[in-house]
Amino acid sequence: MSCRRPVGLPHVDATTPAVLSLSGPVARDEVPELCHAVRTLLETTPTGVVVCDVGGLGPPGLAAVDLLARLQLTARRAGGRIRLRDPDPALHALLHLVGLRFECEGQTEEREPALGVQEAVETGDPPV
């Protein structure tokens, strides 16, 4: 009986980030474990992004803001970043209120339009 290895490189999915699900109110003593989990996930994924599923996190409050700020700091120190999945609109508003900007899944990026793209102007339109 013989076993041949497949020819070529093994299949690696470099486009799918790792996911960390956060559920329930997170106690303060759980934060270091979650930071370690983010660091470990960033070491094992080639994308440099960890998606934090915050849909089950519970009602938004300063404890959730503190947790997400610490996770983002940990990710940045490890050379990556986190992206939020399914954030509550109130949590999203609270994060903006305290000055923390997080990338969210399904959210379009705000950036300059591509070069060479111009808006069409109708001849009868008044100037803005």
TrEMBL record:
PROSITE patterns: STAS. InterPro entries: MlaB-like_STAS (IPR058548), STAS_dom (IPR002645), STAS_dom_sf (IPR036513). Residues 108-128 are annotated as: Disordered. It comes from the Bacteria. Pfam families: STAS_2. Residues 19-124 form the STAS domain. This is STAS domain-containing protein. It comes from Streptomyces griseosporeus.
